[in-house]
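Hey, I was hoping to borrow your eyes for a little while. I'm sending you its amino acid sequence along with the backbone structure tokens. Take your time with it, there's no hurry, and the full record follows here.
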Amino acid sequence: MIFNFSFFKTSLFAAIPYIPVTLAIAAIPLILGLIIGSIIAIIRIYKVPVLSQILHFFITFYSGIPSMVSLLLFNLIYITQFTPVKYGGLIVVLLVFTLERIVYLSETIRSAFLAIPKGQYEAAYSAGFTEFQTLRKIIIPQIIPVAIPPLTSHIVGAVKNTSIVMVVGVYDVLNSALKPCMDTYSFIEGYIAAALIFWVINALIEFAFSKIELKLKKSKNVNNRGKKYV
């Protein structure tokens, strides 16, 4: 097997225009998953009757299904039960990935909530704070630093997970990098080009979040020193 730099360059330049598509496929489910997952986490923490049990069953059930299986299953339902539309495959991808992010992010947020000592809630209630004020002013500011490391892993995982969309015909970085390989019959260059792009994207994400985490830690240390001398 001989690596051809010219083929690699062709695959690389074919994949680069699809970086925004890959980022959108990762970002939209992440944003929706973070919002809906946070709501689900709060419902389960406060043990809302019936609803919390239903959500617990959904999360337990769906978390056991591989992404590829979900994607193929929902795509099969779409192509057999609905009239295909132009961006139908992309809609299926976003639906599947959003459900997946909701499941995993709700557990991440719930774990971050549970990491806060109950005394923080009791102190806030004794100071006259309502539940909403307690969450907004006391609990959530403490949850964010706890949730940053697992959230970073979720974002990196979401970007890498986009590579499976090629099975339903959606063009992302991987699919577009392999397209020129159909003419050359040499796929190693396409895979390496896609791997390089994914690595750069995820390296930038991890760098950005490491800076955010460091800044939050410094801010926390400053606040703690300020409280110490009050």
